[in-house]
Write a structure and sequence with these properties.
Strand 1 and strand 2 form a beta hairpin. This protein has a domain of about 110 residues. The chain starts with a strand and ends in a 13-residue tail after the last helix. Strands 1-2-4-3-5-6-7-8-9 form a nine-stranded mixed β-sheet, with helices on both faces. The protein has eleven helices and nine strands. Helix 1 packs across helix 2. It has about 300 residues and is α/β, with parallel strands linked by helices. Helix content is about 40%, strand content about 15%.
Length: about 300
Amino acid sequence: MIEKFIMAGPTALHVCDSQQGEHCIVLLHGYLESMLVWSDFVPLLYKQARVVTLDLPGHGISVVTGEVHTMEFLADTVAEALKALGIERCTLVGHSMGGYVALAFCERHPEMLDGVVLLSSTPNPDTAEKAENRRREIALVKAGRKELLARVAPAAGFAEENRERMKDAIEDLTEQVFITEDDGIVALLNGMIQRKDQNEMLRKTKIPVLFILGRKDNYIPPEVAEKMVAAHPEARVVWLENSGHMGFLEEPEATAAALLDFAGVKAAEASDAKPQTMETAEETAKAATSDPAEAHNE
């Protein structure tokens, strides 16, 4: 992987690029993360495909450009980055907040996509409750109390039974919170509050869509996830039976196998693991309950 800074339009962006492979997979990190979160996962992919990771503006060591980083701004920045790297098309994978960016990219730059993967993410907008929670986080950060986020957020992303074995990853994520610029956290929280409902766009797009979801996700509980994917019979779905919100760290081999299969890349050399449950959203709909529910995602 070659690490460097590039200009994505007017925005300086920190990227890593394996530079080789017929197929290209681009990985977008989530809130309070950076491209470093993919470090242990990328080796499961790069022998089979070109892999690009990057620090979304406001996180990692990419620049902060204002008080609000909308998902549309982030999507356009990713598009400019891919053009700068000479990449015409890719499979775009978004984890949590990165999925919101991937959805905006799908809406604005579909000609650059072979597929979209929503990894522990949702096309739903913030509920009023979730938006208010984000505003409280903004107030904490502005009051210099970011350590409260670091104390809770990293561990909450993992299934409870995985937290002990994933303690090193949790420590890394905790450190990431502390080194993320306060202004960047605020800009991305403001952008997530403003994001729109992307369900109708996702239903109408001709771009192939894959959901990868954890059965033990505390942010998108399974009953909520089942309703979400039931509304998208056009999509494929992979369930990670033993994962929370961080499936690519909790079950990396199964996640990589699902991505490579979806991207049309042979996965045999990467891992013998197979996705634990592969089905269409239409099949998932049969198992969904009838009670409405809201997603409590990042």
